[in-house]
Each structure stands twice: as C-alpha cells, then as structure tokens.
Amino acid sequence: MQSCTSQLPTVLPVPHVIRRQHHGVPRHLISLTAVVGARPNFVKMAPILEEAGRRSTFQCRLIHTGQHYSPEMSATFFDELGMPAPDVNLEIGSGSHTAQAAGVMLRLEAELSERRPDLLLVVGDVNSTMAAALVAAKLGIPVAHVEAGLRSFDRRMPEETNRLVTDVLSDYLFASEPSGVTNLRAEGVPNEKIFLVGNVMIDTLLKFRGKAAQTGVLERLGLKSRGYAVATLHRPSNVDGMDHLASLVNMLTELSRHLPVVFPVHPRTRERMGGTGLAGRGLILTEPLGYLEFLRLTSEARLVVTDSGGIQEETTILQVECLTMRENTERPVTVTQGTNRLVGMDPNTILRAALETLNSPPRLLAPPEFWDGHASARILDVLERSLVGRDTSSFSVGS
Ligand code: UD1
Q1: Which residue, judged by its Cα, is nearest atom 16 of ligand 1?
Q2: Active-site residue 234, yes or no?
Q3: For 198-248, how does the pLDDT look when each residue is reduced to its tens digit (9 = 90+)?
Q4: Band (281; pLDDT cuts 50, 70, 90)
Q5: Which residue's alpha carbon is at the smallest distance from atom 2 of ligand 1?
Q6: Best residue among 126, 265, 307 to mutate for probing ligand 1, ranked by most atoms within 8 Å of CB
Q7: Separation of CA 101 and ligand 1 centre (Å)
Q8: What is the SS3 assignment for 84-144?
Q9: Model-level pTM greater than 0.90?
Q10: Contact indicator for 83, 74 with CB cutoff of 8 Å
C-alpha cells in the first residue's frame, strides 16, 4: 500500500494533536478500542481492523455490544469478513432504544474505565455507535467517528439522532462523502477535526467482490444474472405500521409479475408481518443473507428496491439501479453521482418508478471521490500522524 498522503488532495488539516494517556502501552503504540453492534457496523469496521493489523502502531481491542446477535445477523459476518472474534461481547440484545443504549453504556463504562484506550473508534449510526461514543466522551477518551456528517435532516429517524449525538462528541470526524464535510462545517465543527477519507464500506465491497461472485446464491434461487430484482425493507417508518407495510408488500408482489423479486426478510420485518402473509405471493423469500451471498445478489440484479442506507452506496459502486423507498437520504452523493433514486413511500409511485427503470438502459457513472478501497488506510494515516504526535502539516492541504 503506498503512502496515502499523496491520495489526499481534499483531506482537511489537523493542526492539533490530542494528548495521549498511557496505561502500560509503549509510547509508539496507539491503543484503540473499536466498538461494533449491528450488521452494517461489521462491514464498515472489518477493513479498518485489517489495515490496523498490518501496522505495528496499533494495538486493537474489539468490543461487540451484542445489539445484533442472531448467527445470520452477526457471526456469519465475522466469519465471512475474516474479522477477529470480539474480545468482549456486552450481550445487550434487543430492546427499546433507551434500553439498548443504556445497556451499552453501563457495560462499556466498566471496560473503558479499566483499559483507558488512547482512542475509541465507532462507525455508522446505530444505537451502539451513539452509546459507545457517549461513554468514551464522559470518560475523557477521544472518539473517532467513521461516516461522520451524514444527515437526512429527518429527526424522526432514530439514526439521525445517533449521528448528531455521535458527531458532537467526536474528536476525529471521518466523512465518506462531501455532504458530510458541508454538514459538519454548517454545525460549527472546526475544520481541523474533519477528514474526507472516502467510504470504508466500499473498501470491503471491493475486497470481497471476487469472492462473492463464487457463491452459488443465484443458482440456488434459480435466478438469471440481471433478470431479477432485490428488495429489502427494515426501517421503522416502513415496517412498523401494518397497513403501510402490507401495501409495500403488495407493491413488491405486483412487481414480481414483471420479474422475479428476491426478498431477504430482516427479523424486524418478519416480526411485524407475523403470520399474516409474506408467503404464497410469488416473492422469493429468504432469511437475512450473509455478506457474500447478498453482495453477489445485488451485483447481478437488474434493480434493487430498498430502504437501507448502505445498499444505496453499494449499488452506486456496483452500477446497479437502486430505488430508495424513503423521502430523504443522508447519502446524497448516491443520487447526484450514483445509481440511486429517491422514490418516496407511496407504493404506486414506487411501482411506477420500478417499471420505468426496467425499461431504461443502465447508466454508467464514475464512482464518488475516494470510494476506491483505500478509505481505511487514510483513516489510520490520520490517526497515526495525530496520535503518535508527529507533525501533521503534510495533511494541511487547505480547505
Ligand atoms: C438496526 C439499526 C439500523 C440498521 C439496522 C441493520 C438502530 C437504531 N438501528 O436496526 O440503523 O440499519 O440495525 O439491520 O440502531 N433481531 C433479531 N436478531 C438480531 C437482531 C435483531 O431477531 O440479531 C430482531 C429483534 O426482534 C429486534 C429487531 O430485530 O427487536 C430489531 O433489531 P434492532 O437492533 O433493534 O434494530 P434494527 O431494525 O436491526
């Protein structure tokens, strides 16, 4: 891996060096505690831990909060992504958002008080991310947030609260796309804390794309490359109201008259649908898929219909048309420079947009800046330069 300083024309400056605390860790080592909790966290943290493992500067400890715990939502991802087993699992499990956050806080406080790492590293916007950042901030441990600055400007989304709280507590804010930088600046975050480094989820995608292509998921489900759609649905705004959820499932059923629709069902959605009928509609239902199978499935789809955040980004790189069943997105670059279209939550509009997309030629687009497989290396470069107290002026390339 070449030095990534030269790849950083728009990374913002870091004039300050955060004071390190030392608890039996040699000065040249950075003790880093990484916290993950839910499925998308694993995909984002894996490449950072792998890159840290290649460097002698970092001593890493991995904490799993246990927010996601089912084998298909957690262990499968650790296996497939080659992540080290967590050093600790806080086993907080399911519950209200307050119960989840409080569980993480109480259990993580003991761990962080004892170890006092130089840095807490969190990714994304799930409840575990916010709760972990809050514990570290209360203990005076610097926080690095990967995927900082994304904003849907919709406070009804639990993730928006998590993003706002995590960012306000963070010392290092690593943005995946330019909107993240703009939003943080507008909120008054000093430039020297903000770094545009690219997208770690795409580091993982590019690394595993070849391996994913070897899985047999298309054959197992009887699908032809580019001849099917993939649907995912798990956001509270879409699945927590029974009538709305039923109308979206009816819409997918209608779409399946035009091409096969594969629907890996998130546990939250399955719970909401209960026995009232996903079966017998002509949809190809599966349990939540592992990372590799899902990546192959989306790579070769004609169309993806989703309410996920990460899938908007993955389809942009895979050049697969994505219809996002939401009124807003915190990832606008996927619309302006990617294959994503916001189609709102009205089932008729979504169906119309899907059929239109099937009749349009696929678009070919250049990937967003720094979505190139090297985001993790950039993050660790910044941390090394700052935390080992070296001169950071080589990053000061202007804002
Ligand atoms: C969480 C994140 C969301 C992310 C999503 C990815 C928050 C606020 N939400 O939502 O941003 O996009 O993860 O999946 O943090 N369940 C299981 N097995 C599990 C985990 C959950 O069966 O391993 C079931 C439980 O019934 C649980 C429900 O799924 O109540 C929802 O899980 P939860 O972690 O609360 O939120 P997600 O909807 O997964």
Answers
A1: 267
A2: yes
A3: 999 999 999 999 999 999 999 999 999 999 999 999 999 999 888 999 999
A4: confident
A5: 126
A6: 126
A7: 13
A8: CCCCEECCCCCCCHHHHHHHHHHHHHHHHHHHCCCEEEEECCCHHHHHHHHHHHHCCCCEE
A9: yes
A10: no
